[in-house]
Amino acid sequence: MLDDISLNIQPDTIYGLLGRNGAGKSTLFNIITNRIPMSAGEVTIEGEPIANNDRVLNRIYLMSEGNLYPSRMRVGEIFKLTAGLYQGMDLELVSNLTQQFGLDVKTRFNKLSTGYRSILKLIIALSVDVDYVFLDEPTLGLDANHRELFYDALLDSYAKRPRTFVISTHLIEEIANLIEQVWVLQNGHITINESTEEMLQKGYAITGPTEDVVAYTAGLNVIGQDQLGNLRVNYVYGELVGDRAIPDTVSVSHIDLQKLFVNLTSQEVATVEN
Amino acid sequence: MLDDISLNIQPDTIYGLLGRNGAGKSTLFNIITNRIPMSAGEVTIEGEPIANNDRVLNRIYLMSEGNLYPSRMRVGEIFKLTAGLYQGMDLELVSNLTQQFGLDVKTRFNKLSTGYRSILKLIIALSVDVDYVFLDEPTLGLDANHRELFYDALLDSYAKRPRTFVISTHLIEEIANLIEQVWVLQNGHITINESTEEMLQKGYAITGPTEDVVAYTAGLNVIGQDQLGNLRVNYVYGELVGDRAIPDTVSVSHIDLQKLFVNLTSQEVATVEN
Questions:
Q1: Residues B274, A113: C-beta atoms closer than 8 Å
Q2: Which domain holds residue B223?
Q3: Cβ A21–B146 below 8 Å, yes or no?
Q4: In this complex, is the C-beta atom of B66 within 8 Å of any C-beta atom belonging to chain A?
Q5: Which residues contact B111 (CB under 8 A, 6 or more apart)?
Q6: pLDDT digits (tens, 9 = 90+) for A97-131
Q7: Keywords of this protein's UniProt record, alphabetized (chains A, B) (predicted)?
Q8: ipTM of this model?
C-alpha cells in the first residue's frame, strides 16, 4: 500500500505525521523502524538509510498502538523490564510522570483502560535514552487534562534533552503548536513535507458572496468549500495571485492546521480502515 | 460511585456531559437509560422520573461505548435489525450518512476498526425516531474529517427534527459550539449545570507579573495557574470583584471551554479508570 516514500529525518526536530484513518501511518512507522520492509523508496536518518542499519536502529524508539506487554505483568514490572532493555532510561522522569498521571504501578497491564495503556507507553517513550522517538496516537483515550499534561511533558523533555519526535495523531489542532514540520500521508504517498509555519502561511479562507469568491479564486488551488445561503467560503492552499485585486466584498483570512488538513484530504476515497 | 445526582432533562436541547476519565459518565448514561439503578437522587425528563417509566424510556436512545452487535453480523444487517426494533427510523438518512462516511454495508461488525464502529453506531443514533439521544464518546477513533462530518450531520438532523442530544466526549473544544448546556461530572456529583454561554462568561485568565496577579485575584475563585518565569496566569471561575481596579500590568481575558474544564477538574484525585 505504501511505496516510493522518500523521507530524510533530521535530528532535534518535532514532526507531525498527519493522515486520514487508514492512510497507512502505522505502516509507515513500522517501515521506518524496520519492522516491515518497503518495496520502493527510501527512509534515511541524518542521511543514512535505516534499512538493516543496526547503528541507526539502536537510536530509535517506537511507541505503537499495539499492546506489547504480557497481559498479567504489573506496571512497575514493565518499567523495570524496559529499563533493563534500554540503557540510560530516565528513571526519575518515569517516577515523576507516573505520579503526575496518577498511574498505579501495581496495576496489571490487562486491567488498564485504553487511556492508561497510552499513558504507560508514553511515559516509557519519553524516558528512554534514544535520539528518535516515534509516537503513534499517543493520546488515544486520554482526557483533556491528561493530554495537556502530555504536551507539557513532551516539550519539557525536549527542552532538557533535544531529540527528534515524530507524532501521529487525529487531534491535529492540539499539536499544531508543538510540531515544526508536517508530513501529510495520502494514498500511500507523502504529499506534503513542509514546515508548519510555511504550511499555515499557504492556507487561506476566502469568504464572501458566491459569485465574487468564485471569480476571485479562479485558477487558484481551491481545496474545499463551505456554503451558507449565498455566503461562500473557498479554502485555498498555495499562493494567491499578487496582482489580482481582492474585491471589497471578499475577505481573506488564514485557517488553522486541522481545517487545512481536513480540506486537503477530504477528496480522498474513503476506505474501510484495516 | 454515583449518587445523589439530580437532573431534569429538557426537550430540544443539546447538552454536553463533561468529566475526567473514570468520573462515571458512562455509568450516568446507564442510570439515565434505566440500565442500572441509582441509590439516591433522581433523573427526570420533562419533569417525569425515568426510573421504570416505560413511556419515557421508549423515547430514549443510548449510543454506548459497548459493542452490542453480533460480531459476524454485517453492517447492512445491523441497520435492518435496528429498523425493525425502532419504528420510524430514517432510512434515507442512514443511506446518505453511510455513503458520506464511506462505510461499507457488507463489512462484518468484527472487521470494523474502532473508528468505523463509532460511525456505524452514530449513524443509527442520528436516524432513530426518539426524542432523547445519548451519545457516549461518539467520535472515538474518528479522524478530523469524519469528526467534522459528524458535527455537521448532528446539527443538520437537529435543525430538521429538533430533539434532545446529550454528548459525552473528551474533545471538548470541538463540541463547544454545538452544546447549549454543560454538565460537569466530578467525584460522583454534577458540580456544574449551566448554559455554555454563562459558563464561558465566568471563566477568566488573569495574566501579568506574579505579585500583581496574586494580589488582584486574592479572594477570587482561582481554579488553576500557569507560571513562566515571573509571568503568572491565574484562571478564575466566577465573578470578578467589580469595584476592584485592574492593575495596568495585568490583563484579563476569557478562556475556552476545554481550558476551563481542565482547570476546574485538575485538582480531582487521579484514579485508575475502570
A1: yes
A2: 202-265
A3: yes
A4: no
A5: A272
A6: 999 999 999 999 999 998 999 999 999 999 999 99
A7: ATP-binding, Nucleotide-binding
A8: 0.87
